Amino acid sequence: MPYADLSQARLYYAVDGPADAPALLMSNSLGTSGDMWARQVPALSRHFRVVRYDTRGHGLSSVPEGEYTFEQLARDAVELLDHLGIERAHCCGLSMGGPTMMQLALDYPSRVGKLVLCNTAARIGSAEAWSARISAVTQNTLSAMAPALVERWLTEDYRKAEPGLTQVLADMLRRTPQAGYIANVAALRDHDLRPRIAAIKAPTLVIGGTHDVAATPQQGREMAESIPGGRYAELNVSHISNWEAPEAFTRLVLDFLLA
User: Fold this and answer.
1) 139 burial class (0-12, 13-18, 19+ CB within 10 angstroms)?
2) What pTM was estimated for this model as a whole?
């Protein structure tokens, strides 16, 4: 299995597409893994060297002790690019992956080509809400809470039409190490990039979901307006837009990256 031993974590990763194609780095949402991008890989890998990885504390990656920060998560991503010999990559992150890629674009601007921020915000939720999430997961277990959490990820119509694919996401969440989940929630609790995002230089596309209550369309529009030259697009979905509308999502990303 492909692992990268970094300065603070061991990341599991997968690479698809031609070795000489432009690189596209994809960062997963809270409680999923690099597998969440599987429905995009066939199309994206025809044009890009697609690099997916499990964020520390998720999937097959290690679970370093202590609470995490987005500075650490961005450094993990840069060290993964170093491990793969990639000097510059387009970057795409959904939900928690969004602040990771924003932090990367701010701290390591020369490493980022174009930036795609999906169902995310410069400040997701409140410190109080994330602290309550940590308490709830500690008390009730992530496995037990998975079905209710996934209800926030997908619209009711989609869950009824695609119960099997909904279950795949619930199972992905159940397999997330609880300690890793809590450590990443701490990063979300403490982060607020609103004062800094205007400094992002990378051409940026923000994708929102009409029915997303975790990272609202209004937050997405505000973020796109705050980033110089930022663009905004919206899909008629909830939080995990690439899963609920895979073809439309992939087309938005391809049209932006190939322009």
Assistant:
1) exposed
2) 0.97
